[in-house]
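Help needed: design a sequence for this.
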């Protein structure tokens, strides 16, 4: 599901028009292997964006529910792709996945307030006698 699930025909005709000497020197298979290895070797470039993952799953679920599509085999849940996820990653995913729910929105707001109060208190420790 999502943008990459739609069949499409891709071509390099545009670049050949602008740069007529352009030639592919890497096969598709070799390119996929190189891309995969680059991500693995660089720890998926800067990690996995769990908020994006949760938000994407939320959008897909919403669309599927609206269009009566069965989602049981779509793996729309938290998946620790590289085996190093923390509780904070699961929390980010959960909040993004359920951000339309009122209780989750209240919880997110509460956490923001607590974070802001903590930053304020620890920024000026002399005010509270620490």
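Sure. Designed sequence:
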């Amino acid at each position: 599901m999502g943008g990459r699930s739609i069949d499409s025909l891709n071509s390099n005709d545009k670049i050949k028009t602008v740069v007529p000497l352009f030639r592919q020197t890497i096969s598709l298979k070799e390119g996929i292997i190189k891309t995969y290895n680059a991500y693995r070797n660089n720890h998926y470039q800067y990690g996995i964006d769990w908020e994006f993952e949760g938000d994407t799953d939320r959008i897909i679920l919403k669309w599927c529910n609206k269009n009566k599509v069965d989602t049981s085999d779509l793996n729309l849940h938290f998946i620790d792709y590289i085996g190093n996820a923390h509780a904070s990653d699961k929390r980010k995913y959960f909040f993004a996945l359920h951000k339309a729910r009122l209780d989750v929105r209240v919880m997110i707001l509460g956490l923001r307030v607590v974070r802001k109060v903590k930053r304020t208190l620890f920024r000026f420790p002399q005010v509270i006698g620490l």
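The chain has a mean pLDDT of 83.
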